[in-house]
Amino acid sequence: MILWLYRWLPILCGCHCRDDRSFHFHGRRFPVCARCTGELIGVLLAAVTFWLWHPSGWIAAALLLPLIVDGTVQARTRYESTNGKRLVTGILFGYGGIVLFFLSVSAAYSFGRALGPVFFGPRPAG
Predict the structure, then answer these.
(1) Which regions of the chain are under pLDDT 50?
(2) Which of 10, 38, 64, 113 could bridge 87 with an S-S bond, Cβ 3.0-4.6 Å?
(3) Contact present, 91 and 42 (Cβ < 8 Å)
(4) Domain boundaries, the chain
């Protein structure tokens, strides 16, 4: 299982796996960088909590901005983000992204259910 994580998580996340931007545990580097670790945590949090509570689409979209700003500023200037900031912005991005995905799927499902009778007639009772 551990070998699978180290082999496939970087590919699935599109991670650069830079040693200086990754967390280490007992001298061993995590399979993905700090930002991707945060994104995975955010994705899991959103998947678990979405049906209990979730923010509106606008707030979920706003949760994407910190990572975008931090990453863009870091790429275009001499600013170097910390692993702690990368983790937090990754969590927000992962959470916001999955909430937007689930809201989109839910809206598409509702739209399809509402449009079905227009094309196929009313559903039979029962």
Answers:
(1) none
(2) 38
(3) yes
(4) 34-116
